[in-house]
Amino acid sequence: MSMSIGQNLRQIQSSLPEDVGLVAVSKFHPATDIMEAYAAGQHIFGESHEQELRVKVPVLPKDIQWHFIGHLQTNKVKYIAPYIYMIEAVDSLKLLKEINKQATRCGRVIKVLLELHIAEETTKYGFSLDDCRALLADGEWRALKNVDICGLMMMASLTDNEEQIRHEMLVAANFFDEVKTRYFAEYPSFCERSWGMSDDYKIACQCRSTLVRIGTAIFGQRVY
Fold first, then answer.
1. What angle do CA 201, 56, 16 make, to 5 degrees?
2. What is the pTM (predicted TM-score) of this model?
3. What dihedral angle (degrees, nearest 10) is formed by the CA atoms of 26, 78, 209, 223?
4. pLDDT tens per residue across span 74-99
5. How confident is the model over 27-64, as pLDDT tens digits?
């Protein structure tokens, strides 16, 4: 007999260190699956399509923390700004400014993570380390009062080579320390390191992740 969503969830939660949060990646899964996870105590869910969120948000509990975890186009920000809790994949100053603009319009402060591109795959989005350094050094972000930069996010290479995955995650962890010291020492909210997914979250927990994004291991294969 296959495990239920609640059982899968409890198994993963019990395997996570106390200081690592869980984002249940619910994209492509129906609201009934999300309710099953919610009933088992999970309140943070990750989605990556604005149209899908538009359908789910009104029918699900209001205390869910929605994380936008995919590549976000600037023209979609206005649709999610009224309710999104955190946007995990900010990969340009243009997007950061648009989030600030739409958050201001809604009278909200939206939490964001800066996405790093460390993996060698060209399909990934995100800042190179040097581009992220340049963005922070430039300082224009300091004037954006309706975004709260809470940390960094990255995706490791899709590979069975655990040493490579570990190396990439530790590069991100060390970079977090660098920018925390240099730019965010006075910002206690800059504390999140979001890396680790279904296949590599156990490595991520050893590489100072504070947020893991897990879908398949909770909900099973997505339904297309």
1. 20
2. 0.95
3. 20
4. 999 999 999 999 999 999 999 999 99
5. 999 999 999 999 999 999 999 999 999 999 999 999 99
